[in-house]
Design goal:
The strands form three sheets. The chain has a nine-stranded antiparallel β-sheet. The protein has a four-stranded antiparallel β-sheet with strand order 10-17-15-12, with no helix packed on it. A four-stranded antiparallel β-sheet has the order 14-13-11-16, with no helix packed on it. It is mainly β and 165 residues long. The radius of gyration is 23 Å and the shape is elongated. The protein is built from two helices and 17 strands. The chain folds into two domains: 2-92, no CATH class; 98-164, OB fold (Dihydrolipoamide Acetyltransferase, E2P). The protein starts with a strand and ends with a strand.
Length: 165
């Protein structure tokens, strides 16, 4: 499996019973499970206290505390790798490339800027329709590539408002 730490460091990890191989190098590790989500490892004559802070099984991500320092960990197993090779990985399929107007209306405010990184649920713009203000939120994580509207613009239903890269 592939393990990514802090979106920066990549490792190929194989765990077979008590044998751990990282990047084709066998590691001699003495480990003990202490309590739920807590472990203790000794590797290369150094002691490591490990705590599972949080885990998202759907995204295969976790937050792990090692000797007081927190690390973000992402795991990609053999099935994820196969789906990616076939072009069927859901990380790409769930990406939204554009935001369209859900109804005709008037753009009251554009909250984001081009090249801005947004998270799922972040407010993008305010659209007035039928005397009601509607906050249009991002359906996905991404970077705003282009904003095709400005404050004061009248838009039609399904008109493209924002594009993501």
């Amino acid at each position: 499996m592939k393990v990514k730490v802090n979106e920066k460091y990549n490792f190929n990890v194989d765990i077979n019973n008590d044998e751990i191989t990282v990047d084709d190098q066998m590691l001699s590790v003495d480990s003990r499970k202490l309590a739920d989500g807590h472990s203790h490892f000794i590797y290369d004559n150094k002691s490591y206290r490990i705590e599972l802070v949080s885990e998202n099984k759907a995204d295969k991500t976790a937050e792990v505390k090692v000797n007081g320092r927190i690390y973000q960990v992402t795991i990609e197993d053999q099935y994820d790798q196969l789906l990616k090779q076939l072009g069927l990985d859901n990380s790409q399929s769930s990406k939204v490339k554009e935001i369209k107007a859900p109804m005709p209306g008037l753009v009251l405010n554009v909250i984001v800027a081009e090249e801005q990184e947004v998270q799922k649920g972040d407010s993008l713009l305010v659209l007035e329709a039928m005397k009601m203000e509607n906050i249009i939120k991002s359906p996905t994580d991404g970077i705003v590539k282009k904003i095709l509207i400005k404050k004061g613009d009248k838009v039609e239903k399904n008109e493209i408002l924002i594009q993501f890269s």
